[in-house]
Model the fold of this input.
Amino acid sequence: MTQLNRSTTTAPEYEAVRHLLASPSIAARCEPYVGDGEFDWAGLLAEAQTMSGGEALLVRIGHDLWENTGGVRVAELVRRLDAPSFERLTHALRLCRSGIAAPAEARLADAA
Done:
């Protein structure tokens, strides 16, 4: 898994990615690859290959936020995400920006 080996300012990114991966449509499939402060990106990206386009995009967005890969185009965000997923993305971006914690009901542990 990719460990959280960054400064404490990285905690908002972790919360944001975790919020994305807790999306109801993918939470159960992502949960085995999410640890406390870490993600198994090889496993998550492999799992995403069998998801719908929008679901896989949520995983890719999380990967981009965490690893700064630049692998997601802005046009994909507005064209491929359904309304609930787009709203989840905007919330995740706010989490990343402000560092506020995700609501308890949106966490992976509670989504399963």
